[in-house]
Structure formats: structure tokens, C-alpha cells
Structure prediction request, 830 residues.
Amino acid sequence: MTTMIELGKRAKEASVELGKLSAEVKNIALQAMADALEKNEDEIVSANLRDVAAVKSKGVKPALLDRLILDNSRITKMARSLREIATLPDPIGQIVKTWTRPNGLIIGQIRVPLGVIGMIYESRPDVTSDASGICLKSGNAVILRGGSDAINSNTVLAEVLNEAAVKAGAPKAAIQVVRTTDREAVNELMRMRRYVDVLIPRGGLDLIKSVVENSRVPVIETGIGNCHIYVEEDADLQEAIPIILNAKCQRPGTCNAVEKLLVNQNIAEIFIPTIVRSLRESDVEVRGCSQTVKLVRDIALISDEEWYKEYLDLVISIKIVSDLGEAIKHINQYGSHHTDAILTRDFSKALRFIKEIDSAAVNWNASTRFTDGNQYGLGAEIGISTQKIHARGPMSIEHLTTMKYFVLGRGHLRQ
Amino acid sequence: MTTMIELGKRAKEASVELGKLSAEVKNIALQAMADALEKNEDEIVSANLRDVAAVKSKGVKPALLDRLILDNSRITKMARSLREIATLPDPIGQIVKTWTRPNGLIIGQIRVPLGVIGMIYESRPDVTSDASGICLKSGNAVILRGGSDAINSNTVLAEVLNEAAVKAGAPKAAIQVVRTTDREAVNELMRMRRYVDVLIPRGGLDLIKSVVENSRVPVIETGIGNCHIYVEEDADLQEAIPIILNAKCQRPGTCNAVEKLLVNQNIAEIFIPTIVRSLRESDVEVRGCSQTVKLVRDIALISDEEWYKEYLDLVISIKIVSDLGEAIKHINQYGSHHTDAILTRDFSKALRFIKEIDSAAVNWNASTRFTDGNQYGLGAEIGISTQKIHARGPMSIEHLTTMKYFVLGRGHLRQ
Prediction:
């Protein structure tokens, strides 16, 4: 059994070689990885069936089971993602800027990989393939630690992907998977500052909280989404209804789905009954504040605590607020700093909302569901950061890089 | 006594207001802060004298005592720094980029403050003033926790600075200082994720290690500097000598002073005796590897462990390496990823060094002492980051900001 330290050492060594690979070799490797997924479909599916059987015997929810399953169409999709990553520009080696100092010293910044990335995630095995591709393209070695439910799928996937990458010229330990489901392995990973440059946790609140609180390796926090839409009194209410329905129903289990609706008090009486009807027609359960429950029948009153909650389900809670200022204050206090939207016709109100809402993405007259690397046109996405340092919002290949300064002198001395 | 949680809450509230301040108000506040330092010089000096007396009675080294002392010339310098910060451009509110998606959605990034910054630092009280100025200019609230040796100086400085800033229009808790020297206060600060957005430790290895290992708040690690100069066989040896002397002697107690000298074996016999003579003439103690000690008399052989060490003193160790590859490997293994330099005439060798050395700053034919915000022309500097995420190398005002995405739609729905 490979120890975690060995895994880390190998990844660090591999990262040195990965940092030197040309875009051409990396793109050939990505194509080869995509081909390998398709060629080894039977092996992948059979490993996945073992995971699915084990999970079924535990009797989990259908939604969880669905996330775990790898079939022909999902494998095709994973392969397509890898081929798309191959077509994206290579950020490594890019001279970001240069300037010359009065003493003639030329100073610049060059983009380089982070080094070794640790991914800690839950059941979705397609993360294994996406993360491998994005890390390889950005010149980083990756250590993958998926959920224990997907251990067989992830092990086979990582083997297939790494073998293909190595054949195309990548170093031996470019893509490694933690082969044990022992929790101690995660604890070790979180202490390996010497070998791991950054940890990215992806999954539920408990997983992220545990990594953020226990890791000594720098973490990029990918967040939960308690997203809001605020309807200002001058909003186009005809436009508001489809935006709210889209944000809530287009895919309710995602972090950028809307969970809370704030409505200006001056339009509450006309707008709330209408939107509640539309939401209920789309099978959404509506809850609300003490004022909202007085306006429409059968709306459950929620507790203060629930304003912090991410439902990830066909549920929404409505709050009536006195004005834009109260909406901003409420969102900054109870929100999760992911995505929040304002619906208004007024530019100055929108600008105030954009400036004062302390979230990764702030939308004006658009669904919250747009917070996504592909929707933004960033190409592949490795997660959505809700922290402020390093990267905020959808993270693409470029966010897995850093810069270093270079200083070009001709015998320059500091005075 | 204000609790740490109260300090945090007030800072968070202040940060909302600070984020909205115009550049004009911030610059007036900075000018007022500079004036206030000069006007309250007597009070500051007398608080500082209490600190100095307490430290003297403990019998510390003169170098440490020197860092603590605030006299007229240092207060003038602190005031000048604040006035310089006032002249720098305001990064807040800058639209960094925008682009339009095929569906007409306009997406962009706008620069905003981080929020609340916690500074944990050792004795130098000028950090109190510099950090206050840089945080204010970047729209952040700051919680200052200086060394216990400087508690009286820091408390008075923060009071004087905050009072001036508030009079000019800053919110009440823009600049706060932790008034207790109790270690538990630091532990609390490191757990206050809800109120503190980032912690910046500045000081010795133990302080930084303790913050990095124990903080739950994201940390920007400012580093120790075990800096290297590698002399390639084709280097201009006449140019090499002043560069090495400058890097070692210009200010040996700083993190960007050179600590290790690597010399290509093909020039070792001619170059090492010469450089040792020059170094000794400048009172530098020279140590070395097993090959170096054979070349020159009275050079102490160092242990493997010592290659990791930062001297911060007039000491340097020399190692003979077989080629550029060995030099790169040695630096990446034993260095502290701060600043490393190559002396060579060959562009391709320099480029390889720049690309493969895993450090914040990589210099070609220039002294390591240039790694500094002012030397780079970045204006004020809050520290030198040796970590890879968020900021790497000298950190200026811009590095205390983050960006958020804004999405401008006209009823856009996700398909």
C-alpha cells in the first residue's frame, strides 16, 4: 500500500516535469485520456456497477444514486469535456506583464502552475475525469480523494486516465488517486504542506467545513449556495416570473439555484400572490416571513435560522423587505456569498446592489443559474469558490495557476 | 475590556462602510493620519519609551531594541509613507474586464476590498502605521495585533491613526488594535472566520508557522528568505562579485539577503578563492560544502540541515554544483521559495532558471535585495508572500483586494 507521504512525494516530483510540458504534449495527452475513457468503457462501467451495488444495499436516495452512476452517455460526456479542455489556450509560461524601473531593471510576471493540487470530493465520479484534465492542462499534478461510495469507479478512472497521459509524455504520477477509504488518509493529506500546494474540497457543507477547519494546506473553499433574488418595486414583473422560476426549477439541486426571494413591500400585495401561484404550479413549496404568510394561504412561517439554509430542493422562502438597503443587509447577513440577483429597471439601484452585495457573483435581471464556468465562457470549471482570496466564483484553468516575478538586470545592485 | 468577538463584529461593520468610501475621502483620511502622527509625536514617543524601558530591563539584543525604537526621524518616515499611499491609485471599483456571451449576457469583474484583515506581527511598530494606511486605501478594516514588546506604542499609534481617519470620514472601527498581550487573543483571532477575511502574519519563523498551522481564517504567508545566488560557468565574474556583496551585505537582516551561494564546478577553483576574500573583507563569515572547504582555508563544513537555514546575519555558505540542473534541484529542495538569482551571460540558461525555480522572485544578473514593493515600483508593501495562492512576492494595495463577477441581463434565463 502506498503511503500518503509517498503519494505526495511522487506528485511533487511529477509537478516539476508537468510544469515544463509544452501545450502540444498536454493537448495530445488530453486527447489520449478522452480516447482511453471510451476504449475502457466496459472496465469503467463494471467497476462502477460494484460501487452502485454497494450503495444500493445501503438503501440511499435515488438522487444520490443517480450522481454515482456511470453509463455510456456519461462516459461520452466526460471524454468530450477532456477534448474541450485540449482546445482551450494554455496559460502556462504566459508573460502577464513587464515594466522597466528608473534604474533600468526589467520586472515582469510569468504564469506558472500551482504545483500539486489535492481534490477532496463526494460521490460524483465525473469530477475525477474533469479535475484530472483541468489539472493536467494547467501543469499541475493532482491527488484525487473521491467519496468512499465511488472508490472502485475512481480508482479505475484515475488508472485509465493516468496511463493514457503517461503514454503521451506526462510524468508517471501526474494523476494519482487515494486508494483507501480510511478517513486518516484525508487527515494526512490536509497536513502535507510540503507536498501539496492547495486543497480544493467539493461537496456538502460538512465536507467543506471539515477541510476548511482542519487543513494546514491552503484551501480554496467551494461553497454552498444560499442564493437570493431581490425584486425591487420598479422591477419588470412580467420578466421577474420566468427569471425566478428558472433560478429555482431549472436544476434545483445545484448551488446556484435560488433559495430565497426578497420582495419590496410596495409590490408585495400584487406580486407575491402571483409568484406563489407560478411557483406552486411548478411544484415548488413556498415558505415565508411573518408578513408573507398573511398575504397568501398555506405558507409555512420559517424560523430565523432557516434564512441561512440551502435547500437544494424545490423549496423557496419569501421575505418582504422595506427597501433596497434592507435587502442588501439581509443578503449579506444570511446569504452564503455565492450568487445573488436584483430585478430592477433602475441602473443606479443595480449598481448599488452590485457594489454592496458581498458575493462571488451579483446578477442584474438575470437568473442565478448563470454562475458556472461554461455559462461564463471560461471553458472547463473545477468548482465555484465562495472565498475571497485567490479565486472567487467559477474557477477555470487559469485559477489553478500562480505568477512569479522575474527581475532582469545587468549587474544591478540595490542602493 | 473589548472582547475579540466584539472587535471582529465592529471591524466587519466598518468594512461595509469602508468599501463604499470614495478615493477622495480615503486620501484625505491618509493625509490626516500622517498629520496626526506628527502632531502627536510626544505622546507616541513617551508610549514608546515605556516599551523600550520594559524591553531593556529584560536585556535583549541591540538589533531587536533598534527595531522597537520610535524617534522623530522614524515618525517622520511613517508619516511620509502614509502621504505616499494617498498618492497611489485607488484600485476599488475598477472594472477589471467585461465580455459578452453569445446570448447577450454581459459578464465582468469588478475589484472590491477583501473586507477585514488581521495583521499579526512582531516588534516593529512602523508596521502599525503602514498596515493601517494600506488597509484603509484598499477599503479594508484592519485588526492589528503587534508584538507584546510594542503594546504601548501600538496602542497609541492605532488610536491616533484611527481618530484622524474617523474625523476625515472613515467609519469608527476602521483601525483597531488588540489591547491585550494575552496569547489567547491570537487564538481567537485565528478562529474568527465569520469576521476576519484574511490573516497576514509578519515576523519570525515561529510566529508564521504557528499562524499557518493553527489558523482557520485564510492566511497569506509572508515568508522567511533562504535566498540563493547561482554563478554559472559563463557568468561575468567581475560583475558577480559586487552583486553577491550587495545581496549579502547591503542589509543582512532582511529576508531578501542572500544566504547561500552555488558555484558551477568549472569555475570553482578560480572564483571561490576570490569571492571568499571579498566576502571576508566585508566581515562575512563563509561556510561551505565538502568540496568548498578543500579549496579555501578556514571554511567551516556545514551539515545538510544548514542548507535549509536563514542566517539573517553576515554569514554565507557556498556549495559547488556540477551544473545548472543540480543548482535548480538544490534550490527547489532547500530554498524557501522567496528569491533566487542566476548569474550568467546565456539567455537560454537564464530562461530555464526563471521557469524552473519555484520561488516568488527569480532574478537574472541582479541582486536578491530587489524583492521589495518599493523597488518593484508597486508603492507601499504590506509584506512579501512566499505562498502561491492569492499573492506571491511583494504585496501591494491591489493584493488586499478581490474581484467579484457581475452579470448583466435583460431577463436572461439559463437554457
In short: The longest strand of chain B covers residues 401-412. Residues 4-221+387-407 of chain B form a domain with the Aldehyde Dehydrogenase; Chain A, domain 1 fold (CATH 3.40.605.10). The first helix of chain B runs from residue 4 to 20. The CA atoms of residues 260 and 375 of chain B lie 22 Å apart.
